[in-house]
Amino acid sequence: MTTPTVDATQELAAFLRTRRERLDPDEVGLPARRRSRRTPGLRREEVAELAGVSVDYVVRLEQGRGLRPSVDVLEALSRALRLDPDERTYVFDLARQRRPGDTDGPATAAAATLARLVTDLSPLPAMVLNHRYDILSWNREMAELLVDFGTLPPSRRNSMWMCLMHPRTREYYVDRERVVREGVAHLRAAWAAHPEDRGLADLIVEFSTHDEQFARMWAERDVKVKGRGRKVMRHPEAGEISVDFEVLTPVQDLDQRVVIYRPADDASRSALARLSAG
Q1: Judging by DSSP bridges, how do beta strands 135-138 and 126-130 pair with one another?
Q2: CATH assignment of 8-94?
Q3: Does 171 score more than 70 pLDDT?
């Protein structure tokens, strides 16, 4: 049996029906009805009353008649049907709407569990970033490999700023043009997904103003989110180090990314071990 392609309108209709039918009127504070119910759960009239919409609107939604409910209506229905966070996300995705909270500002501190994870990943260099490349947490090995982030002002703990403007790391990458291009393509995708992020917009203006290469690549409008790859670095003490990187996005913290570096060859493994020992 093959899985059918999702018909978002029909799936939203079916999902709302099942959520309505599972609710007991007592759970939502509705008065008990004197006559017996012929259907399980809430009636459409009751959902309409709880959500502040018309009964006809609920009927058309549950019949999959081509409606695209607004954010406000989806929020009202989610409350009326007592949807949990995952169910709420599901109906917003089916309706192709951005959820309230999707436009919140970027994380400015790593989730505690991710900060512990980064520490536990030692001796592999690891760090936590947000969507605009701000460095939120790191382990000692990552600081040894790149730079002591703790010595930088918080506003400069940004991996793209370091690549473009930090005096030590500006020429750190052997294939700097590729690294910058990939970073620009990621930032353009993040810029479109987070149009409300004034801090990201300011970073892009700063980079474009002070780095000709960034400005040229930004104008090319490449878009790509790269989750893995390889970087070759010239470390001032350990020499050339090649690492494979992996970017993981936690389900519970979608604005945060765990970046893990692994040595790409034996020589790099030895170099990282020397840095770690030091």
Answers
A1: antiparallel
A2: 1.10.260.40
A3: yes
pLDDT surpassing 80 at residue 269: yes
What residues contact residue 242 under an 8 Å CB cut-off, 6+ apart? 230, 231, 232, 233, 263, 264, 265, 267, 268
Q: State pLDDT tens for residues 82-108.
A: 998 878 888 888 888 876 655 556 888
Structure tokens given for 31: 């008065």
The Cα 275–Cα 143 span in angstroms is 10
Token pair 């006559």 in the structure block, residue? 35
- 249: tokens are 């996005």
Q: How many residues does the chain have?
A: 278
Report yes or no: 156 and 217 within 8 Å, Cβ to Cβ. no
pLDDT number for residue 222: 87
Q: pLDDT by residue (tens digit) across 190-202?
A: 887 787 789 999 9
Interatomic CA distance for residues 177 and 232, integer angstroms: 12
SS3 label, residue 193: helix
Q: Which residues pair with 7 in a beta bridge?
A: none
- Does domain 112-277 fall under CATH 3.40.50.720? My reply is no
Q: So where are the chain's domains?
A: 8-94, 112-277
Dump strand ranges (E) for 98-200.
126-130, 135-138
